[in-house]
Q: What sequence folds into this?
């Protein structure tokens, strides 16, 4: 079962009172993901929140092998991905 680390930035937007997923981006390194999330977090507007996470996945099945690690978060983020 070959494993791989994924570095993902997830943006969040508001539709009325509901917090919804916005754009999802994948990066090659944790540092690239952190930098993008920090940049997005510094200019929140239509995007009300952003989180960067590291995930370990099985490359053959796509199964998440470990709990995601929150690298950075800004603004409004759902509790299930907040890392608290």
A:
């Amino acid at each position: 079962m070959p494993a791989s680390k994924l570095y993902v930035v997830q943006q969040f937007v508001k539709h009325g009172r509901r917090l919804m997923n916005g754009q999802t981006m994948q990066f090659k390194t944790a540092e690239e993901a952190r930098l993008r999330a920090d940049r997005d977090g510094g200019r929140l507007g239509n995007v009300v929140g952003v989180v960067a996470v590291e995930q370990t996945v099985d490359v053959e099945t796509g199964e998440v092998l470990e709990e995601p690690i929150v690298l950075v978060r800004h603004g409004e983020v759902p509790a299930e991905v907040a890392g608290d």
